[in-house]
Specification:
A hairpin with a 5-residue loop joins β2 and β3. The N and C termini lie far apart (55 Å). The protein has one domain: Orthogonal Bundle (Cytochrome p450). The protein is an alpha+beta fold and 404 residues long. It is 46% helix and 9% strand. The strands form three sheets. Strands 1-2-3-9-6-4 form a six-stranded mixed β-sheet. Strands 5-11-10 form a three-stranded antiparallel β-sheet. Strands 7-8 form a two-stranded antiparallel ribbon. Its cofactor is heme. Belongs to the cytochrome P450 family. This is Cytochrome P450.
Amino acid sequence: MSADEQVLNYPIPNDAALDPPAEWAELRGKCPVAHVTLPSGDRATLLTRYEDVKQVLADPRFTRLLNAPDAARLSATEDGGLFNSEMATIIPDGGEEHQHWRRLVGKWFTAKRMNALRPVMAQIAEDLIDDMVRCGAPGDLKASLGFPLPVYVICDMLGVPAEDRDRFSYWSDTLLNLTRYGKEEIEAAQAEFFQYMSDHLAAKRSEPGEDLLSELIAAGGPEDGGLNDLQILVTGMALLVAGHETTANMIGKMVSMLLADRSRWEALLADPSLIRTAVEESLRLDANSGFGLPRYLKEETEVSGEHLPKGTTVICSMAAANRDVSAFEDAERFDLTRSPNPHLAFGAGAHSCLGQALARTELQVVLEVLLRKLPSLELAVPVEELERVEGLAVGGLRTVPVRW
């Protein structure tokens, strides 16, 4: 690489809460395979075009575990966060073992199961909105609804008692917010969480319920085609963490996008059958989805005509790919009726998001209940005043101030 070639810092700085950085369009047009410097100072390769991102995410030669000695470190302080530590290796990363794990756990995340959960989700959403309204306007939609709802739903699926939901919420936060808490507090929370799950699994063994963990236990150990105890425990922890922060943030961003141009909200009030496509379009146009998916290349390959040597760390920007004009007509426009909408918000291939039916259902239910209960909902601050959360692997807004 020539000395005068400019290397972008990544993540690309951006002040606008809901709009993409201008660099995305430039990179897609002129430099779809770009060299970037990560917060750690390490180099990586950034992909921004739809076809390239889709190709890499579906290619088994690109692994999601960044624990190889020559893999780029994402941050300078990385000392074994939850998913690059030994815990990350307990759930198989690839091949037949990973497919087997996905089949066992994925049975709980089918669209059919999610439809059965809809009434539970709707009741949780109703209760949370009632609480927010009781406290008076303006309220913070993120804190009142966005954050608690996904935790309460996953607790329901894991058979965790309702009174323990707030502890779960705190543990999940400490495992994801490596900037908000000190190392000692994070380690203490991890230990508490681990102990709680161990005790919870022991209780499920003696008294199984109608929940995901009871069913994983009932499937037997590895010799019976099931998972071992540690894998079940880590699966429970991973599902809580993975399903919490992403959906919690997306609820706030989706509602903000729909209220930022109130004609979108009015259109949904006039025709609630558009809720499904509105959710998909919000996922596609989310310009603040976080870091993107890092992948480590175990053998050399080619992307967009560029040679990538073995040992390259690639960052797939699904959010940039989702605005690619070669894949989406009028790609920058928010189209409430867009269908089909083959966006990459949930990834692609063997590692596409296991919980995507859960996330979709939660987003649809939240929108249904909000439109019904608070038709006059509006942002309580100008869009320009919405602030991004900085320094996390997942993107979101600090608060979503609303009135009704």
